[in-house]
Amino acid sequence: MLLTVTTTHRPATDLGYLLVKHPDKVHSFDVPTGTAHVLFPDAAEDRCTAALLLDVDPQRLGAARGGRKQQSAPESFALGQYVNDRPYAASSLLAGALAKVFRSALRGESKDRPELAGATLPLEIHVPVLRCRGSAAALFEPLGWTVTATPIPLDDVPPGHPLDGDSPYVDLTLTGTLRLADALNHLYVLLPVLDDAKHYWVAPDEIDKLLRAGEGWLSAHPEKVLITRRYLAHRRSLAASALEQLDRLDPDSVDAPADTATDEEAELPVARKQSLAEQRRDAVVAVLAESGATRVLDLGCGQGALLGALIKDRRYTRIVGTDVSSRALDLAHKRLRLDRVPERQRDRVTLWQSALTYRDDRLRGFDAAVLMEVIEHVDPPRLPALEASVFGHASPATVVVTTPNVEYNGLYEGLTGMRHSDHRFEWTRAEFQEWATRTASAHGYRVSFRGVGDEDEKAGTPTQLAVFVKEEA
């Protein structure tokens, strides 16, 4: 099976530096299912093409499965291991080879051309044969690609014959101007999604691979539910866990707790239900409106989901988002399109890098501050420092805090442990109220509590919210 990457960036042979492969050589690598080769059929100043060729060994492919049943496998008959399209059609096998041979490029790293690794390049991706279940355009176009997916016809057969017409394969070409790392990560995730088959056992660590490769694009993708389910081989418990983590990154998600739909039903359009992230954002926005605040801090803003909602409301004349992660702030800047909006609107919004466990004078003088799904990411011994920094030093008139309700976790099918791999703790309602009441008393606030999301008679709501209001002096 074959995949080519072409650029017309000058000098085009810089592609070799980005892929860490010399254009004058043929590079070969052993992979669990065969041998991967990288070569450059075209390497000129104005155009360079790198080709990844995977030679699949059926016996090694069988050994790599370890005798376990292949998940979502299209070749389920007795000789399917030997008689199939795996040597010719792009699939998860090609995605796995891509991840091994282009490891540095996928991470966006280049020792020799570090500035180029972060730049967008004119790219053309060609996959001559791809088993395509669904629309390639629906998956790639939201990511900035122009998609040409030409159906591959079957051999000539008489009209009316059962095999008359096109095959389930397409000749796929993607063109666009993107970072090479982004392009490769798109392919790594979406090739097996379009094939809708994983040719190795899907374990829980596949969630981490998906989130890592999908960083910066998957959480906002309109087809992220379908992508997640297919990438994780329709393992419902794994998909629910992955979607819960993606839900925190973007408000436009469909929550999947207690999802009892069949795999076939999961592919069908369903009525749009407001996600927990949207309900949480709307609840916070409602509290801010009630408070009368016009100058607002979003502390631990992440990729800017709440900031996007605040910008749309002209009552907020000063909006600041802070995060300890510079990567998150870069993504928030892109998401909010701050380099494209009118100057008057851009002047209302500022992004700062800041750690909430240290006092920052820039955070003083605001009407309200929001800690939305933030405190559970702080190690418990560091919480007193956060309390002193936010409630004591910054001391806004109103503070809004949301955090998961651990009592509700039992209603999420397949969820074991906490809702996110980076959570340091998750509190019961009693534990959250004890912390909030003590913090309010120590810093001159009064506090009230609300629930966010569908309420269960015993477990309460999935998200708990506290509103701290500064006592009058």
Automatic annotation (TrEMBL):
Domain Hen1 N-terminal residue range list: 1-246
Protein keywords: Magnesium, Metal-binding, Methyltransferase, RNA-binding, RNA-mediated gene silencing, S-adenosyl-L-methionine, Transferase
Top-level lineage group: Bacteria
Domain called Methyltransferase type: residue spans: 297-386
Region (Disordered): 249-272
Cofactor(s) demanded: Mg(2+)
Annotated Pfam families: Hen1_L, Methyltransf_12
Matches recorded under Gene3D superfamilies: Hen1, N-terminal domain, Vaccinia Virus protein VP39
Record-listed E.C. numbers: 2.1.1.386
Gene Ontology biological-process annotations: regulatory ncRNA-mediated gene silencing; RNA methylation
Catalytic reaction equation(s): small RNA 3'-end nucleotide + S-adenosyl-L-methionine = small RNA 3'-end 2'-O-methylnucleotide + S-adenosyl-L-homocysteine + H(+)
One GO MF term attached to the UniProt entry: RNA binding
PANTHER family (UniProt xref): HEN1, SMALL RNA 2'-O-METHYLTRANSFERASE
Family indicated by similarity: Belongs to the methyltransferase superfamily. HEN1 family.
Protein name: Small RNA 2'-O-methyltransferase
Organism: Actinoplanes auranticolor
